[in-house]
Amino acid sequence: MSGNHSMEGFQSLDSLDSVAGMAAFAQDTQSVSLPESGPIRDASGVNSTLGYNVFDTANALNTPPSNETQGHMIQSIASMFELEEEPPKGDEEMADDDDTEEQVDIEDQQKRTARLKSALPTLAQMWWADSEHMDLMAEKLADGSRDPKWRIPLGDSGILNFFLEILYAHTLRHTLKIHVLRLIGNSCADTDENRARVVSSNYLPSIILQLQDTNLLPFAIPVLYNIIIDYEPAQLQASNSYLSKSLVELISSPRFSNSTAFLGYVCKILDLLITQSTEPEFAPDNTAIVLLRIAADRERPADMEDFVALVNSAVAYLKHEKFQKAFFVYGSLDIARSILVDSYTRFDSTPSFGLSAPDQDDAKILSEMRSGLNQVLSDVSALPEFAVAVPVISPFASSLRRWLSSPQLQLQVCACIMLGNIARSDAACEEFVHTCQVHKPLITVLENTSDSQLLHATLGFLKNLALPAKNKEALGEAGLMEALPRLWAMDTLQQIQYSSISLARVLVTGCFENIRRVAQRLSDDPDSPANMRSHMSLLIALFNRTDVEPIKMEITRMFAAICRVVNTFQGRTPEQMTNIRKKFFLMHPDIGRPLSFMVSQTKWPIVRSEGWFVFALMARYPEGAECISDIMQDVHIFQPLVELLTGRSIVDGSPISSPTQTSPSPGSGTGATAGTSPDQGIQDLISGLSPESIEPQAQAAEISRVDRENALVLVSELLKNRGSDMAVMRRTLFEDLLKGGGELVLSYKEASEAPPSSHASRPKSGSTLQEVVLQGAFELGS
């Protein structure tokens, strides 16, 4: 239910304990503009709207009115609510807009205000006379406040402020206090003008104090809800007045045992309070824990509506780190675990005592609740305190591992997320794999589920487990590499495609056995088309058909990691590695296109550097050099190499960036003709270079240096392993690149070693490089 609670009148004390005496919530209301000011109580008790002091005894009769007079007064109060209404009009067309606001009759409102204002002296007289009939007058006014047409007049007339003041400043009889609360609550229902009066005069704390009286709880709780619903100033004042502290103490004490019907209101109030920026500061740090304990209480089990309300309110508070950290202080992780289990066993299945299973709406509500709880538990488990509080071998972690094989999807999701956050060190990951064998149920999940949420959580956990070198081969042996291709084919779940490729990349990084698994033939039958295809072939096909750049990049990085191992692995004899490389490139002749994407893109410089490094490694062997030579046939790949080694573009020969006074400028020495060998300095330079990888934290200048040197090694190795097979023009082009690039690298080295000079000299550029590049452009593009 939503909206505000309008309080019904009670005719006798016997009816005060009846929850049914409270009317249902009204419909949701739209926010309205607040008045600039309302009746303000000053230090003397003067109501600024009325212009006189209703609490001054001089204004009251010196002697109490007689019973007969009081009876007339009561009758007068009751009769004023019998204001004649307009006769019903004829049939009118229904407005098309359901949100059309009811038109306010200002004249009618003023007439009601005048009637109420005339009764204010009578109220003051009876108050100071301490008349027992005051209770009945308050009841009549509270009954009248149920009609929305009387609510603003009750505020404008000063009646509301009158009762707010006596509640604030005096000790009232229990019956009178009940009707005062009813009047306040009804007057504030859907009426921001009256809520503003409560807030502006700071009456809210006195209403909060009424929560200390157990007998007033059925009235005080809905009154507070009516005041703060849809009215942020009241929510802020309530938060600053420690309302959440009062509510948390209340619902966790025995005093609340007979008022549990109002638990839903308490949760709604807390939901409103936590939207205020001050609430995390003022609310008790165990707020969420108290709510979850009540939800998990099996001696006094909450019904489904209250259960969901309690958990959702706890989730709202658990979005803030203060309440998350309290989980560890109070040792409450097991409570959250019980909540998730109970949400299935208590509500989401057919119990043995004959209750029916929930309908689809209830199932949706429970699912959304679990999803919200899973999210905050994910945040809790991401805190550093979690890994300390929950080691790999612990009862809580054991429960989570059992959830991995649960038929309930959201329990599996929760387990993957929380266990994945324990697996944040090599030691923990190795213990998970080699002691707990946690990867086996995870692989089963990948093989069987198609739920994106569960797949994403599972892949994230497995990626953590795959990071330590000790785990990679064990995961491969368990069949993880064979489980991933199914996910690569999920074109409609691109995030899953990306995450599964990323996991494969981690698995093959530095692990020859996993590379063997991903590159082996799909079929041993020589007549089968799959005989010349592997899992890598599937990724090449995905690279060619997808337009998603991160997926293309992850495939490229995976292939680069594979080529890095294939060209550096020392676990086989040189002859064996030669055969392995030959078979690898024979099986994957089109691997060049994905690899070339690394160096042709400019979005991720660190990935581009990784590409030049792997190219330099591959070019050291004939098999890899052939692949790289084929890649360089594409002018879009060759151009970045030219720019890297000369600082010039193939198209117009202009430098990529303007030279600065503090940086040496690229160029070549004396004008050498095409086909001549580099001078001795360049030969010495090249012989001393080897492929170098970039550190993740490298700065731009360091990246540029390493890229140039790797490109120089690349060209040198290409000429060594493929030069004799190149056309003359092509070989000449690479030789000039080698010479020009070598001179550029030398000039940078000399500049970095030489003392600063006020006149930086630029080496003369070679006269033939630009011409050769332009002449060879057609050949390269063919």
Question: Would you mind describing this structure in some detail?
Answer:
With 782 residues, the chain is mostly helical. Among the domains are: 29-61 and 110-201, no CATH class; 633-782, no CATH class. Strands 1-2 form a two-stranded antiparallel sheet. The two termini are 72 Å apart. Mean pLDDT is 82; it is low at 1-62, 86-100, 350-356, 654-678 and 758-782. InterPro entries: ARM-like, ARM-type_fold, RAP1GDS1. Residues 653-678 have a biased composition (Low complexity). Residues 93-107 have a biased composition (Acidic residues). GO terms for molecular function: guanyl-nucleotide exchange factor activity.
Strand ordering within the main sheet: 1-2
- Number of DSSP E strands: 2
Instruction: Report the total helices.
Output: 40
**Average pLDDT level:** 82
Radius of gyration: 40 Å
Shape label: elongated
> Which percent band covers the strand fraction?
under 5%
Question: Based on helices, strands and strand pairing, what is the structural class?
Answer: mainly alpha
Largest sheet: 2 strands, antiparallel
- The helix content, as a percent range, equals 55-70%
* Low-confidence sequence ranges: 1-62, 86-100, 350-356, 654-678, 758-782
Q: Between the first and last Cα atoms, what is the distance in angstroms?
A: 72 Å
Biased composition (Low complexity): 653-678
Organism: Coleophoma cylindrospora
Biased composition (Acidic residues): 93-107
Protein name: ARM repeat-containing protein
